[in-house]
Design brief:
The protein is 71% helix and 0% strand. The chain has 8 helices and no strands.
Amino acid sequence: MSKKVHGSWMMLFVDMRFLMRNWKLTGKAMGGKLVPRPFRERLMLAVTAVYGCRYCSWLHTREALRSGIEKEEIAALLVGSVDNCPEDEAIALIYAQHWADCDGNPDTEATRRLQKVYGAEKAKAINLILHMNRLGNLFGTSWDRFLYRASFGRWGK
């Protein structure tokens, strides 16, 4: 899995727009009704593995541990492997990696498969989680770029 630094203002607006249009779904997605907390953290770790934001890696590793995910599974997710994950979540996790790798523009077939396996509402909730995570990654990688430039390369990445 390649590490990318994303920072497009357009992605920021795309994510904000998606979240505003789907704000009613946020409670179900983040409250565990549609996407249980461990599943949500696996999705976030899968996206973070692609974007490489150190703040998100730290936060979602901590939250994954709190939700009961084993250290070995977390380590595998952070390098792009879904081998140790629950089988019923694998399609969504691979989709999340694909989604992040192609800047939130997944193949139509990948989106159809996600909807077929999880249903329309849960698939939309998964996409909402991915947009939320990319927002966090955008802020984290942008902050690191600022620190790096402001410190003449001593801080940040």
